[in-house]
């Protein structure tokens, strides 16, 4: 039976062993990169979780490309080679730049991009934004301003409903509004709702967000 991309990535990540898998995760959260995955997005995750994370944010061929490049970066060359061969045997091939055969590779739509650019720009859209909201909860509450404008955006994006909008908006302080929004209203929407909040805050409170270290 042919393996799915999830099967291939999960198996390859397991083949890394504990030490190399830790290096793989560390490379994804490298603070030296301009855009990176927050530790909260990958902390405590197993091989299956990371495989899902890659696939959810990229096409399968891009997820394969990125995995191969990180593996080579951490000197897990044999594991990368095995993954590439097994992927090809199951009908998958990475896009150009992953080190695969030029005859079978899918063209890279942005060949100038580095592997780190490809990973972190997309992961930032959901996982990193949600992790930022979680990690900076205390500071966000303390520094909250212009919350009615933020609530307007969340309502328009259907992240919160009219009842939640009115209920939270009736709180006396901006801090109470932010606290209830994150702790109560955004529970149902999960990471996607927090990502919308991140974008709304970047729009309405950009200086505060930059002060808190937002990428």
UniProtKB/TrEMBL annotation:
Pfam families: CARD, PYRIN. GO terms for biological process: inflammatory response; innate immune response; regulation of apoptotic process. Residues 1-89 form the Pyrin domain. Its main location: cytoplasm. It is found in: Cytoplasm, Cytosol. Residues 125-215 form the CARD domain. This is Apoptosis-associated speck-like protein containing a CARD. Keywords: Cytoplasm, Immunity, Inflammatory response, Innate immunity. It comes from the Eukaryota. One of its GO terms (cellular component) is cytosol. It comes from Astyanax mexicanus (Blind cave fish). PANTHER family: APOPTOSIS-ASSOCIATED SPECK-LIKE PROTEIN CONTAINING A CARD, NACHT, LRR AND PYD DOMAINS-CONTAINING PROTEIN 1. Residues 90-110 are annotated as: Disordered. PROSITE patterns: CARD (PS50209), DAPIN (PS50824).
